[in-house]
């Protein structure tokens, strides 16, 4: 895809990059910050192993802003031919377009594929460059005749720029755990209400009686057998729903080589044989629960493998936040609390733009009310909903 923009900054040139391998990894990572999901190696692994690409509806179209040959700003960007793997659900918008004889796809989406993880999306050192990235994305949307442009799960300081541009804001929420300086897992349990504390302890005792133990395997220390077990569990989760995994074995093998210090496998063994596994990523402050699967149903195994073990790992390693992934009110009972998430949207069709804007106002009111009504799992006020 050939596209080049010359914004108001005379020294800047913005290009569309169809392969992230064309961009220098060090320069990209300097803009991306600490999030493992925005690292050049992570996004390159998705492309190199065929998890994203034009043939499966994820056409990379990253924006790169250069000055004198230096990469000064960037945006992870994709031309999408469906809405899978985004976790900001716009299927009803697509259906409304279809019923009016219009095409919602393709669309332009700024996101991390298959990863509903909040983080920076406008990778730049100042608001002027962030603004140029968004304005160029809107220009690209029109140039390609796409229906819409979307930015999913951005965090500050992106918000200030997005609020000043003609995009529509959409609210959402996830469940995250916040470390209040707990000395150990028992200290965390002591902060929960009595019924939730009792339930977690009972589940742990039942699993122990069934011969279940857990081990945390760092990416750098992992073995082939650990990854074989994880992928078998991961693929089985999809097979139960008669579908194929979005991420293939080669993708995880690539991450094991390129981002070993950001990977953690939480493996459940029963009588010494692995039966379940959770795949997590981490940075210096956060643990991100991403994928899981089990080869044997045991009561409480899912909650322990996916949530309790992640929380205990975070406490042990001094991490501040455990992100439990998208959706799931059941996570509230595990000590995770609702955290606001955000996305921004622009539709080319003015009629649909007005209708969606009215819908988003009602949806935001409903989400705020829902979050306020959720009963906190803690004996006192939970951490901020942020």
Describe the structure.
This protein has 386 residues and is an alpha+beta fold. The protein has 2 domains: 4-174 and 339-373, Gcn5-related N-acetyltransferase (GNAT) (Aminopeptidase); 180-319, Gcn5-related N-acetyltransferase (GNAT) (Aminopeptidase), CATH 3.40.630.30. The chain has 11 helices and 16 strands. The chain has an 11-stranded mixed β-sheet with strand order 3-6-7-9-16-10-15-14-13-12-11. A 5-stranded antiparallel β-sheet has the order 1-2-4-5-8, sandwiched between helices. Strand 1 and strand 2 form a beta hairpin. Helix 2 (40-48) packs antiparallel against helix 9. The longest helix has 24 residues, at 350-373. Mean pLDDT is 94; it is low at 382-386.
What is the topology?
Blueprint: E1 4-5, E2 12-17, H1 25-32, H2 40-48, E3 58-60, E4 62-67, E5 70-75, E6 77-80, H3 91-99, E7 107-110, E8 123-124, H4 127-143, E9 148-152, H5 158-163, E10 168-178, H6 185-191, H7 194-209, E11 212-218, H8 224-239, H9 249-258, E12 263-270, E13 273-282, E14 286-294, H10 301-316, E15 321-326, E16 337-347, H11 350-373
Helix pairs in contact: 2-9
Low confidence ranges: 382-386
Instruction: Using the 3D structure, state the CATH architecture of the largest domain.
Output: 3-Layer(aba) Sandwich
Major beta sheet, strand line-up: 3-6-7-9-16-10-15-14-13-12-11
Query: Rough shape?
Result: globular
Query: Beta-strand level of the residues, as a percent range?
Result: 25-35%
* Main sheet overview: 11 strands, mixed
From the alpha carbons, calculate the radius of gyration and give it in angstroms.
22 Å
Overall mean confidence score, pLDDT? 94
How many helices in DSSP terms? Answer: 11
The total count of strands amounts to: 16
The computed structural class is alpha+beta
């Amino acid at each position: 895809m050939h596209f080049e923009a010359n914004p108001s900054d005379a020294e800047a040139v913005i290009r569309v990059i169809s392969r992230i391998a064309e961009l220098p990894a060090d320069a990209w990572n300097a803009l991306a910050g600490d999030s493992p999901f925005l690292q050049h190696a992570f996004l390159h692994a998705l492309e190199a192993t065929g998890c994203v690409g034009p043939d499966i509806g994820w056409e990379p179209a990253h924006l790169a802003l250069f000055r004198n040959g230096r990469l000064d700003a960037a945006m992870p960007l994709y031309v999408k031919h469906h809405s899978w793997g985004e976790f900001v659900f716009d299927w009803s918008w697509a259906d409304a377009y279809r019923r009016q004889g219009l095409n919602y796809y393709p669309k332009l989406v700024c996101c991390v594929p298959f990863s509903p993880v909040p983080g920076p999306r406008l990778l730049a050192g100042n608001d002027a460059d962030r603004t140029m990235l968004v304005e160029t994305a809107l220009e690209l949307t029109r140039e390609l005749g796409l229906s819409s442009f979307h930015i999913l799960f951005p965090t500050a300081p992106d918000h200030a720029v997005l609020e000043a541009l003609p995009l529509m804001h959409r609210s959402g929420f996830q469940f995250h755990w916040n470390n209040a300086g707990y000395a150990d897992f028992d200290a965390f349990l002591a902060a929960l209400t009595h019924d939730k504390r009792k339930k977690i302890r009972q589940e742990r005792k039942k699993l122990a009686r069934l011969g279940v133990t857990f081990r945390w395997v760092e990416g750098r220390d992992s073995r082939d057998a650990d990854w074989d077990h994880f992928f078998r569990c991961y693929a089985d989760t999809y097979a139960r729903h008669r579908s194929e995994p979005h991420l293939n074995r080669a993708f995880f093998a690539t991450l094991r080589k390129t981002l070993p210090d950001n990977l953690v496998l939480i493996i459940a063994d029963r009588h010494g044989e692995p039966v379940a596994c959770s795949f997590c990523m981490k940075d210096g402050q956060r643990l991100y629960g991403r994928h899981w699967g089990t080869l044997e149903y045991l009561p409480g195994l899912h909650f322990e493998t996916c949530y309790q073990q992640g929380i205990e790992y975070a406490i042990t390693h001094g991490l501040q936040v455990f992100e439990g992934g998208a959706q799931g009110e059941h996570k509230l009972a595990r000590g995770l609390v609702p955290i606001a998430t955000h996305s921004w949207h622009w539709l080319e069709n003015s009629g649909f733009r007005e209708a969606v804007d009215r819908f988003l106002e009602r949806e935001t009111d409903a989400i705020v009310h829902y979050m306020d009504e959720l009963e906190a799992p803690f004996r006192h006020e939970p951490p901020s909903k942020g």
